[in-house]
TrEMBL record:
SUPFAM superfamilies: P-loop containing nucleoside triphosphate hydrolases. Keywords: GTP-binding, Nucleotide-binding. Pfam families: Arf (PF00025). It comes from the Eukaryota. The keyword Acetylation does not apply. GTP binds at G95. GO terms for molecular function: GTP binding; GTPase activity. InterPro entries: P-loop_NTPase, Small_GTPase_ARF/SAR. It comes from Stomoxys calcitrans (Stable fly). This is ADP-ribosylation factor-like protein 16. Residues 52-80 are annotated as: Disordered. The gene is 106084779.
Amino acid sequence: MISCICLGPKRSGKTHLLKALQDNDLIDETSYSTPTIGTNIYNIVFPTNTHGEDAMKPKPPPPPPNEANTAEGVGQKKSKQLPPLKSIRILEIGGAMAPIWRQYFDDVKKLMYVVDTSNLCQISAAGVLFYSILAEPRLQKVRILLVLSKMDYAYRQMRNEALLMMQMSKLQKEIRQKVTIIEVSPVTKVGFDLIYNWLKIP
Ligand SMILES: Nc1nc2c(ncn2[C@@H]2O[C@H](COP(=O)(O)OP(=O)(O)OP(=O)(O)O)[C@@H](O)[C@H]2O)c(=O)[nH]1
Ligand SMILES: [Mg+2]
C-alpha cells in the first residue's frame, strides 16, 4: 500500500523530482521528463549519509521537552518514538489527472504538492488547487509538503513571491494541516536533504 502521494499541476516537475530522489545521478540539466498520463510509482531508498541538515548538525542530546521543529510541527512530535523510515514508496499522479486526484485520497499519510516557481501563469491557479486538496476531509490529518520546484531557473519566482501569489498566509489560516515548505531543484539537488528528512518521518 502506498501512503505517500505526489500531486501538482501539469509540468510542475513531479516526475523530474521523484526520479532524482530515487536516483541522484539520473537527472541533470540535459534531462527531460514526459508528461505522466496516469500514475508512476517511485521507490526511494534514503541515502545513509546525506550532506545536509542531518550530517551537519551536531547530534542533539536527548530531545528537550519543549523543542519543537518549526518546519515539521506537531505531527512529528507524536511519531518521535518510531525510528525514521529507510525507504518510501511514492505515487505520482499526473497533473492531467487532477479532476480525479481525489480517487487516490484514501489511506494517504503524506502528501507532496509540487508547484513550478518558473511558471508565472500557473502559480496562482496552483494555490487554488492546493487549497481544494487541503480542504478534503480525508486529508485533514495528513502530513503536507509544499515543494517549490525548478529553483535552478534564473527567472523563477523567489520563495516569498511564490507564496504570496499562492496566497499561502491566507490559506494557512483556513486549513488545519501544518504545511512544510521546501525549495527544490532536481538539477542542482538543492533542498534534497530537507526532502529526504521530511520523507523519513514515520
Ligand atoms: N531546469 C529544470 N527543469 C525542470 C525541473 N523540473 C522539471 N523540469 C522540466 O519540466 C518538465 C516537466 O517536468 P515533469 O517532471 O515531467 O512535470 P510533472 O509535474 O511530472 O508533469 P505531469 O506528469 O504532466 O503532471 C521536464 O521535462 C523538465 O524538462 C527543474 O527543477 N529544473
Ligand atoms: Mg509527471
